[in-house]
């Protein structure tokens, strides 16, 4: 498990690592937050190897390859350590299949700010720690939520 230096803002993406999870948009957003030098920590196996290649290529193209860390599938202990290293967790589900996310529940239990898909099934989560992005969101919606997460406190 890689340890991360203190003072670095980390946005974790620990949901499905597949197109539709918003990870490409997060990489583009990382270039817009240079003052906080954010790290995008992507945990878990990719459902599509070509998607990981697209992410790595985009990170290199944007000049942020050193700030994007794909750590793959981990033990539960290492997953929890990675989760705790994050300041915010992006857990988007699109298309939404009406399921609960174990990653989301762990992030909430850890007291982390989460960016989630705004779906009726998750309306019971308080706005005090959940920033919502509409299903089928635009990159601008995700940009606004991530920018808000950089200044919000839980």
Give an account of the 3D structure:
With 154 residues, the protein is α/β, with parallel strands linked by helices. It has one domain (10-149): Rossmann fold (3-Layer(aba) Sandwich), CATH 3.40.50. Helix content is 34%, strand content 18%. Strands 3-2-1-4-5-6 form a six-stranded parallel β-sheet, with helices on both faces. Helix 1 links the parallel strand 1 and strand 2. It is globular.
Question: Could you name the key traits of this structure?
Answer:
six-stranded parallel β-sheet; 5 helices; globular; Rossmann fold; 154 residues; 6 strands; alpha/beta
Helical amount: 25-40%
Biggest sheet layout: 6 strands, parallel
Compute the number of helices. Answer: 5
Strand content: 15-25%
Q: What is the C-alpha radius of gyration, as a whole number of Å?
A: 14 Å
- The top level CATH class name: Alpha Beta
What is the number of independent domains? Answer: 1
The average pLDDT is 74
Give the second-level CATH assignment, the architecture.
3-Layer(aba) Sandwich
Low-confidence stretches: 1-11, 14-21
Number of strands: 6
CATH topology: Rossmann fold
Strand order of the largest sheet: 3-2-1-4-5-6
Structural class, from helix and strand content?
Answer: alpha/beta
What is the assigned CATH homologous superfamily? Glycogen Phosphorylase B
Instruction: Identify the overall geometry.
Output: globular
Q: H/E element string? A: EHEHEHEHEEH
For the termini, the CA-CA separation is 26 Å
């Amino acid at each position: 498990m890689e340890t991360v230096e203190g003072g670095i803002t980390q946005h974790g993406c620990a949901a499905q690592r597949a197109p539709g999870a918003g990870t490409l948009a997060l990489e583009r957003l990382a270039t817009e937050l240079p003052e906080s030098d954010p790290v995008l920590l992507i945990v878990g196996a990719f459902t599509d190897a070509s998607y990981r290649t697209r992410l790595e290529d985009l990170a290199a193209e944007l000049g942020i390859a050193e700030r994007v860390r794909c750590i793959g599938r981990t033990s539960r202990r290492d997953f929890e350590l990675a989760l705790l290293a994050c300041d915010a967790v992006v857990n988007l589900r699109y298309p939404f299949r009406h399921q609960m996310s174990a990653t989301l529940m762990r992030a909430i239990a850890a007291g982390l700010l989460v960016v989630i898909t705004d779906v009726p099934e998750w309306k019971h989560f308080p706005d005090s720690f959940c920033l919502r992005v509409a299903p089928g969101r635009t990159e601008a919606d995700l940009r606004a939520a991530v920018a808000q997460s950089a200044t919000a406190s839980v």
